[in-house]
Amino acid sequence: MSKTMPFEEPVIKLRQKIDELKHIAQDADVDMSGEIEKLEARLGQLEKSIYSNMAPWDRVQVARHPERPTTLAYIAAIFENFIELHGDRLFGDDEAIVGGIASFDGQPITIIGHQRGKTTKENIRRNFGMPHPEGYRKALRLMKQAEKFKRPIICFIDTKGAYPGKAAEERGQSEAIARNLIEMAGLKVPVISIVIGEGGSGGALALGVANRILMLENSTYSVISPEGAASILWKDASLAKQAAEAMKITAPDLMDMKIIDTIIPEVAGGAHRDIEKQASTMKEYLTATLTELAILNEEELVQDRYEKFKAIGQFIEN
């Protein structure tokens, strides 16, 4: 059963009431269709009101939902003939990042994404979706391979951040991330990044230097978590809710600031409610974006990416 968020309680209660009436009507052989239709109409209005006006902290909770679809779930639902490739050819294989080759409506595509687990065992295996340097170097190896064979690159962003442990630092975590930023900026193939959950810090940005950044409606994208920001700013992690509102980390805010290019709408209640329907919506947006970028040549793709990031932010002269 899906975990219920606090703001969903009115919706859950109304659904339960509708189910009760349906059971009563069936067991007692009583026509209650009129009452059920009224309640279902009210449910639709309530869902629209709640899910279209969620506060930033509510969106953070949906982005962190334990059942939220992962990169591999979307790969299975959207692409065909996925072949996963492993290893960075330097140290080892980091399972916090998955990548490989697939087909998208008959077109060869390279896919790279953060991968977290849903169970404790899988999260330990995937290091809770926090990559080591070899994960980013694997990603870069696949990007350069895609460039060699002229395949578009699609990245799925879903991480709290790069792993900050001693071993990661010893193997050059910051260098690996910085190398990805430099190399991604100059890739001569279309690059599309999609934020599907949490997009945290440099760990997310290492897959985020793209021609187009798409973002699921209830995902987040930020330099630090709300808890981390609250700890730094106010020395109190319990003020994370206020930090989330101040940081402008939600899709609508990032769209206003032109950090992302497109918001992909989610099914009512979040992507975890209906993975197939959500994947179908994402496929439509991916098709449109790939078509848009297909008309650009190699030099234009690099220039397009440069202009996109150059336009972020404002310069104010005193």
From TrEMBL:
Q: In which pathway does it act?
A: Lipid metabolism; malonyl-CoA biosynthesis; malonyl-CoA from acetyl-CoA: step 1/1
Task: Report the locations given in the UniProt record.
Answer: Cytoplasm
GO CC terms:
acetyl-CoA carboxylase complex
Residues covered by the CoA carboxyltransferase C-terminal domain: 35-292
What's its job?
Component of the acetyl coenzyme A carboxylase (ACC) complex. First, biotin carboxylase catalyzes the carboxylation of biotin on its carrier protein (BCCP) and then the CO(2) group is transferred by the carboxyltransferase to acetyl-CoA to form malonyl-CoA.
The family assignment reads:
Belongs to the AccA family.
Q: What is this protein called?
A: Acetyl-coenzyme A carboxylase carboxyl transferase subunit alpha
Q: Which organism is it from?
A: Metasolibacillus meyeri
